[in-house]
Amino acid sequence: MSEKPRRAPTGAAVLQPQITAAVTAAVMEELATNGYARVSMEAVAKRAGVGKSALYRRWPSKQDMVVAVLGEFSVELAEFADTGALRTDLMAALELLHTWLTHPRMAAILPDLTAEAGRNPVLAQAVRTTIGQPRRALGMRLLQRAVERGELPADTDVEMALDLLAGPLFWRLSVRHAEAEPDYLDRLADHLLRALGAR
Q1: Distance from CA of residue 104 to its chain's centroid?
Q2: Of 14, 40, 68, 69, whose CB count within 10 A is highest?
Q3: Greater confidence, 10 or 35?
Q4: Is the C-alpha dihedral spanning 123, 129, 135, 139 positive or negative?
Q5: Which ranges constitute the DSSP H helices of 36-105?
Q6: pLDDT of 71-84, one tens digit each?
Q7: How confident is the model at residue 15 (pLDDT cuts 50, 70, 90)?
C-alpha cells in the first residue's frame, strides 16, 4: 500500500517575501513620519495593506517589529569592505556611515529613536543588541585587520577607536545638522589615521 503524500500542518504560517517587504517599508515610513511613540501595529498594517495577523506572525510586539526592521537595514549598511589597506577601508566605512545617516528615512528616525531609547531602557537595550553591537562587531573586524597588517599598533584601544570612527560624522550630521562637504570624508579619514597612530 503506497503512502499518502503528507500535507502541510493546518495553520502553518507561510511568510511571503512580498508581504514582508511591504511591511518593512511601512514600518520605516511610519517611524519617519510619526516617530516611535506614535507607531502602532494597526497603522503599519494599514499602510502596508495587510491584516494585523501578518505582523504578529513575524513579530510579537511593536518594539520587536521596529528593532528587527531597523536592525536589518542598519547592519546591511555596515558591511565594511576589506580593501587591503586601512585608509581605503576607513573611507569605505565612512561612506557607508554617511549613507546610513543621510538616508531620507533614517535621518528622521535616528534622532527620534535615540531620544525614545533615553526614556525607555528596554528599547535602549534592544537597539544596542540588534543594531549597535552587530555594527560595532563589523567595525572591530576592520580595526583588527589593520592591527594584523601592522598598520595600527598592537595595543590599539579598539573600543575607543570605534567611538572615534563613528562620533564625528554622527555629531556633524545628526546633532549639528551640518553638511558634509565633498572633501569632508577624506579630511576626516586623515584625522582619524593620525588620532589612531596609524603607521
Answers
A1: 14
A2: 69
A3: 35
A4: positive
A5: 41-48, 52-56, 62-76, 86-102
A6: 998 988 788 889 99
A7: low
Percent of the chain with pLDDT over 70: 92
Q: What number of other Cβ atoms are within 10 A of residue 169's Cβ?
A: 20
Q: In which region does residue 186 sit, left (phi positive, over 0), alpha (psi from -120 to 50) or beta (all else)?
A: alpha
In sequence order, the 6+-apart residues with CB closer than 8 A to the CB of 118 are 124
Dihedrals phi, psi of 93, to nearest 5 degrees: -65, -45
pLDDT tens for residues 123-178?
999 999 999 999 999 999 999 999 999 999 999 999 999 999 999 999 999 999 99
State the Cα–Cα distance between residues 168 and 13, nearest whole angstrom. Answer: 45
Q: Position 37: which residue type?
A: A
All cell numbers assigned to 88: 581605503
Contact residues for 70 (Cβ-Cβ < 8 A; gap 6+): 28, 31, 109, 113, 127, 130, 131
Find how far residue 42's CA is from the centre of its chain: 24
pLDDT for position 57: 93
User: Distance (Å, rounded) from C-alpha 77 to C-alpha 174?
Assistant: 17
- C-alpha span between 66 and 22 (Å, rounded): 14
